[in-house]
Amino acid sequence: VSFGFKNVPEDEKESLVRGVFDSVASSYDLMNDASSLGVHRLWKDEFVSSLRPGRKGPMRCIDVAGGTGDIALRILDSAREKYADRETTVEVVDINAQMLKEGHRRFKKTMYHNTPQISFHEANAQELPQDKFEDNSYDLYTIAFGIRNCTSIPAVLQEAHRVLKPGGTFACLEFSRVNNPLLSAIYDQYSFSIIPLMGTILAGDRDSYQYLVESIRKFPPQPTFAQMIRDAGFFTGKDLDGGAWTDLWGGIASVHTGVKV
Ligand code: SAM
Questions:
Q1: Which atom of ligand 1 sits closest to the CA of residue 18?
Q2: From ligand 1's centre to the CA of 158, what distance in Å?
Q3: Which of 43, 112, 115, 231 has the fewest Cβ atoms within 10 Å of its own Cβ atom?
């Protein structure tokens, strides 16, 4: 099976993506560490600390495409450690039950287990059930390394805008475009040869990791994505090109934020 999306009709993409994450769920955290050489941890730390959860008091957060809860755990730890806040809550939403199961298992070892601070929900980012995820209800919406897997980015952004309170923050961490040609060449070599090879060795699954790499290439570059965020009704703080996002490691990843107005 080839997971390159060139020949995959849009309506099949969702089930393909589901299959990819089904097959990687149990090895997901290990592969994440191996393929990024642990760097995803630094990016996630930086992402969450830039959002300063708990600074203005307890926040109601939703972490979409939250997988095994990496971002949720950081949000709760950061609120507690920096602001002695044990009332901030995170609802982790993911389309894939296996990923959520891994997340739930992982949280059992934390102090948040069995508290109202954390909960897991199976749902599609593009159409969050309105009865469960009501309009104007969250202070913070996060999505990390997830939006590029969704069939319709505008639909995800529209839903993010719907569920956020006015003044609430949308924050996205995603692989992005490297602008420096030398770094770009090294990065291409690494991602197209080494990551699928690691997928084979560590998870016995080359295709899924090949798909993950290809999906990174298809995601819009920073200015285009920033414009999509503005088109969904968010204020990104700065004028058009530049400033609406922060590049991490020369653009290998980037953080985009927007405020619901
Ligand atoms: N946010 C986590 C992290 O940073 O470790 C997980 C990222 S993982 C690369 C991408 C996640 O997106 C997977 O758990 C996958 O199931 C989920 N996903 C893909 N399409 C989705 C959709 N349409 N709605 C919700 N989740 C989706």
A1: 16
A2: 17
A3: 231
**Residue 125 alpha carbon, nearest atom of ligand 1:** 24
Partners of 248 in beta bridges: 253
Q: Whole-prediction pTM value?
A: 0.89
Rounded CA-CA distance 220/235 in Å is: 19
When the candidates are 3.40.50.1360, 3.90.190.20, 3.40.50.150, 3.40.50.300, the CATH number that belongs to 5-260 is 3.40.50.150
> How many angstroms separate the alpha carbon of residue 97 from the centre of ligand 1?
11
Write down the domain spans for the chain.
Answer: 5-260
How far, in Å, is the centroid of ligand 1 from the Cα of 124? 10
pLDDT tens profile 101-148: 999 999 999 999 999 999 999 999 999 999 999 999 999 999 999 999
Q: Report which of 78, 134, 89, 139 is spatially closest to residue 116, judged by C-alpha positions.
A: 89
